[in-house]
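The following record pairs a protein chain with its ligand, magnesium ion.
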Amino acid sequence: MRERVLSRIKPLPPILLPTSTTLGLATAEPVISPESHPPFANSAVDGFAVRAADTQHASKATPAHFIVIANRPAGHPDHTVVEAGQAIRIMTGAPIPEGANAVVMLEDTDAWDATAGRGRPGGSQVAVHRSAEAGQHVRPQGESIKAGDMLLEPGHVIRPAEIGLLFSVGINRIQVHAKPRVAVFSSGDEIVPADQEPGPSQIRDSNRPAILAGLQKHGFQTLDLGLIPDHEGQLTQAIQRGVSEADFLISSGGVSVGDRDLTHHVLSRLGTVDAFKVAMKPGKPQVFGEVENVPVYGLPGNPVSALVVFDVFVLPALRKRSGWGDVLRPLFMARLEKPIQRKGGRTEFVRVHLETKNGGWMARSTGLQGSGMLTSMTRANGYAILPAAVEHLEAGADVLCMLWED
Ligand code: AMP
Ligand code: MG
C-alpha cells in the first residue's frame, strides 16, 4: 500500500526562496557551490605561524627560538612575510601569513609574560618546544568545499547545518519544494464538535484536532474543513473544496464497508481510487485516491487507527508531496520487555514505550491496544511492528521498532 501510494504522489513544483526561510523544505535541484571553503588558508588554532623547517628537532630541552614580528588576529589582514627564524602570533581563523607553512599551538611554546595574562605577548621572542610538520594546524584554502562541488542533492531536507553550509559559500536563495497545505475534515453523523455536549449516541470529534496537531508538528499549513455528516452531497462538496484550496486532503471516518461509509464511493465518483484496505492492525479500513491531481487520504474513524495510519502512511506521503527524497523514518531493533501473545494475520503496530537500557533498546507495550483507546498512544513514544505471521513472542525477543520523534 505504502509503495503504491508513494508512487502516485508528485512533489509540488519548485519555488525560489531565500535560504533563511527554507528550514524543513527539500531542495528541488542539485545545489552547486559557487565558491571554495575555506576561502583562504587559515589557522585552526591560536599560536604562532612559522616555517616548519625552523622547528626541526625542537624539544623541551632544546627549544627553537623565534623573533615574533607581528600579531595577526582574525579579520585583520596584513602583508607581513615570515622569514627564517621569524614567527607571527596568529589567532584561529586568521590567514596564514606568506612565508609560513605551519602553526605551533600556544601550548607548545614558552616565553609568555605570566603577569601580562594569557593571550598577550610578553616579549618579542618565543620558544617552541615541539617540532611542527609542514601544514600543521593549517586549514588549506578549499579544504572542505571546492567551487563546483555538489553540496546537496535534490530532495535533501534543509536543517540548521544545511542553512549554515549554504550561507558559508554565499548561497542565499535556493530552489525548494513548498510544503503542501493540507485540508482536514472529520465525517460521521454521530460526531459532534469536541466542545459540544454530545447527545445520546453522539461522540466528540477527537480525530480532526489530533490530525491538525500532527500536521502542525511536522510544519504543514492546515485548512480545517470541519465536520461533515454521512451525506453524499456534503461529502462531495467537502472533497471538492479540499482539493481546490489545498495540496493534500485528509478525512477520517466513513471508509469501512458499512452502508453509511461513503468516502470510497464519493472519491471514486470524483476522481480515482488507487488503494483501499490494508492488512494492518489497527487501521485496516482506509482509502487513498486523487481528485484533480490532489492526493486524498481517507483515514479510519477509530482514533488510534486514524493516528497510526497518519504516522505510517500519510506522513511519508506528505513528505513525498513536499519533495523529500527520503520519506521513511528509520526502523531499529528493540527487545520486548514482556511476552506478546496475539492473533496473527495482519501486520500489527503495537504502541510501545521505547527506552535505552543496558546499551540497547527495550520496548514495553503501553497496555490496552484497542483501536479506540487513545491512552495506549499517550503513554507510548513509538511502535513495535509485528509481522503478520508472528503469533507469539517471548520476553527478550527482538522486534522491529519505530520512534515517533525523528
Ligand atoms: P467509521 O470509520 O466511520 O466506521 O468509524 C469508526 C469508529 O470511529 C466509530 O466508533 C466512530 O464513532 C469513531 N469515530 C469516527 N470518527 C471519529 C472522530 N472524528 N473522532 C472520534 N471518533 C470517531
Ligand atoms: Mg462512520
